[in-house]
Amino acid sequence: VSVYEVLSFFFTVIGGFFFFTGTVGLLRFPDAFSRLHALTKADNLGLGFIVIGLAIQSQSFLIAMKLILIWLFALIASSTSCYLISNRATVKGYDGH
Amino acid sequence: MMAIDVFFDLLVAFSLIVLGASVVMSRDLFRGVVLFISYGLVMGLGWVRLLAVDVALAEAAIGAGLTGALFFNALSQLGEKTYYARILSQWFAFFSLAAFASILMTAIFNFPEESQGLTSEVMGQLKEAGVIQPVTAVLLNFRVYDTWLELLVLLTAVIGILSLRRSVDLAAIPFDSPRETFLEGIVGLLAPLMVIASIYLLWAGTHTAGGAFQAGAVLGGSGIFLWLSGRPSAGILDGPLFRILLISGTSLFLFIGVATLSWNGALLSYRKNQAGTFILILEAIATASIGLALVSLFLGSTSKKKREKG
Fold it and tell me: Which residues of A fall within a CB distance of 8 Å from B188?
């Protein structure tokens, strides 16, 4: 087992943990805003760790750059949709329950 | 390692069945559409696991993305149905789906026990095809007829929608002026990148997963985003230009069909030295045509209420 494999395993497991907590938050939190918070914050971080893990595993600069690009686009998409959903909820006077 | 693969495949298959059942049984239509989009994404994952990346791309872009957007459009215009109309339409849907499902099941049970498929034929002829990607070779050379007919289906749908709106182009369809500065800015950043991604997919189709339909879907998606963020999108193409672009894909197939008929003696049969050029031209024009057709489907089916407001 090489040091890369250990590092890759370590980062993807941490990433998986953040996805898990984000999902628990989505299912358990009481209103739309805190659910959005749990989902976007935890998933963005989780995806970041998984991207680090996969980039180490690929051992290729080009693939690593592509993975980071995917992460950046996911960040843009999730923060945009988070803002749009919560803004819509605020405008519509939706209390979130 | 093997066990994890099998576990993952089972998870995908199980999720598909559960999601499919929830789409059909969902009482709330909005929830049904959201579940349908999730179903499309998991379906795309399933196609990746079957090593059909081309189908996966098309499924995610058209099946989940564009069809989902069209469903949301339709949903926002649905009026309240009377009780009896609802019951009637549900029974109608049930019987037509049951009939279709039984046809599919009959087909599955009539599969030959051992079939090699057409893989060896395709691979044997690939040298003549003009591209090294077998899927593109089938879609734009061996079975180019099918692709032509698919473009015609799309064109017919657009003509139908525009006829219902009694408009000849998209310029007549009013768009909401921008309300969300944030959305406007993000789309301004993403739309040009989507156009680049579309060109990449088109180019990739000659040697790896990609092609006209995937590229056209991404192009169409960028048009829909532009419109949703309060821009005229494809509406800036006025009358003649819009119509010429819309029919350019099918017309080019017709033109190349006639040309090959007179040069090579058979409809849409290329010679080896022509194949690569014909495929590239067809794919490029078809991408523009498909993209515009998909934008037109979305814009043409947007709520008419917006016309009154704007």
Answer: none
Residue labelled with tokens 């030295």: B273
Contact B39, B20 (CB under 8 A): yes
Integer-rounded Cα Rg, in Å, for chain A is 16
What band does B310 get if pLDDT is binned at 50, 70 and 90? very low
Token pair 């149905």: residue = B81
pLDDT at A90 over 80: yes
**DSSP 8-state code for residue B93:** H
Q: Do B59 and B40 contact (CB within 8 A), yes or no?
A: yes
Q: Which of B181, B186, B194 to mutate to test the interface with A (most CBs of A within 10 A)?
A: B186
Q: Do A76 and B190 touch (CB under 8 A)?
A: yes
Residue type, B199: I
d(CA B297, CA B285): 18
- List chain B residues with CB under 8 Å of A12: none
ipTM at complex level? 0.81
pLDDT tens, position by position, B34-43 = 999 999 999 9
Give the C-alpha separation, B194 to B219, whole Å: 7
Lowest mean pLDDT among B55-69, B193-207, B270-284: B270-284
CB A56 within 8 A of CB A8: yes
Which is more confidently placed, B65 or B271? B65
Nearest CA to B227 out of B166, B301, B284, B162 is that of B301
What pLDDT does A97 receive? Answer: 52
**Do residues B154 and B293 touch, judged by C-beta distance below 8 A?**
yes
d(CA B155, CA B152): 5
Residue contact B182–A80, C-beta within 8 A: yes
| pLDDT for res B84 | 82
pLDDT value for A22:
92
Say if the Cβ atoms of A84 and B189 lie within 8 Å. no
Nearby residues of B165 by Cβ (< 8 Å), 6 or more positions away: B172, B173, B300, B304
Q: CB of B189 within 8 Å of any CB in chain A?
A: yes
Q: How far apart are CA B138 and CA B216, in angstroms?
A: 18
DSSP chain A: --HHHHHHHHHHHHHHHHHHHHHHHHHH-SSHHHHHHHHHHHHHHHHHHHHHHHHHHHT-HHHHHHHHHHHHHHHHHHHHHHHHHHHHHHHTT----
Please say if the pLDDT value at position B9 is more than 90.
yes
